[in-house]
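Weekly sync, protein design subgroup
Attendees: M.S., D.O., the rotation student, P.L. (late)

Item 1: inverse folding check
M.S. brought a backbone from last month's batch and wanted to see whether the design step gives back something sensible before we order anything. D.O. pointed out we never logged the input encoding, so this time it goes straight into the notes. Structure tokens as presented (215 positions):
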């Protein structure tokens, strides 16, 4: 089962990807996480990506496509994969089709998680991430036991540069312009399903699992 999760930043794609991964025993691939790991490691790819991500711009296609191509070749992807944060443009979607076709595979279902902009801004601007182990917290929904300190490893918990309110608003503008056309692209393929993302996490997961089983 090959699944794509669409939706604006902060719509809950990562949370749902983790739950689907556990339920179906297939890996969840987040291009954002892979890029941030490269930034933290100080790689050439990371340096290229950081200049774009820090201001809410999309990382160039050729960088992201090559990351995904190599990841899909790994053994744990043989039974299927969940793509979170990719594709983000029609060009990326077409390249993904080409990659999967070469492997004798296809996309089975695309889940589009929708959330109002106001709610997204509230979610992301108050999100905090551990600087060491990358555990995710939220000032409202999931605060740390000790302010500013990760519950798991004791490192500092910080706000990502791309989570400040102005950058979040810009990220939403970028998403609407470059990524929303993907909805039409996958509607034509008859694999697109809508998921209301304003519901509680378990309710969203219930909808997601039903749509996957029906695919």
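Designed sequence read out in the meeting:
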């Amino acid at each position: 089962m090959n699944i794509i999760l669409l939706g604006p930043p902060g719509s809950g794609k990562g949370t749902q990807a983790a739950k689907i991964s556990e339920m179906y025993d297939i890996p969840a691939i987040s291009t954002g996480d892979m890029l941030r790991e490269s930034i933290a490691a100080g790689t050439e790819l990371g340096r290229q990506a950081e200049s774009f991500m820090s201001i809410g711009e999309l990382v160039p296609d050729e960088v992201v496509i090559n990351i995904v191509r190599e990841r899909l070749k790994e053994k744990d992807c043989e039974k299927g994969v969940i793509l979170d944060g990719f594709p983000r443009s029609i060009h990326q979607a077409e390249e993904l089709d080409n990659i999967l076709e070469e492997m004798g595979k296809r996309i089975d279902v695309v889940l589009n998680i929708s959330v109002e902009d106001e709610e997204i801004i509230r979610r992301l601007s108050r999100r905090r991430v551990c600087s060491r182990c990358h555990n995710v917290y939220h000032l409202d929904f999931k605060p740390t036991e000790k302010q500013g300190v990760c519950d798991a490893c004791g490192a500092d918990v910080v706000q990502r540069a791309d989570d400040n309110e102005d950058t979040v608003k810009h990220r939403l503008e970028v998403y609407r312009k470059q990524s929303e056309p993907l909805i039409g692209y996958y509607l034509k393929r008859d694999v697109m399903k809508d998921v209301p993302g304003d519901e509680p996490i378990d309710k969203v997961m219930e909808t997601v699992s039903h749509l996957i089983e029906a695919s």
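Discussion: The chain has a mean pLDDT of 90. The beta strands are 2-6, 28-30, 81-84, 109-114, 127-130, 136-138, 157-158, 192-196.
Action: P.L. to compare against the previous round before Friday.
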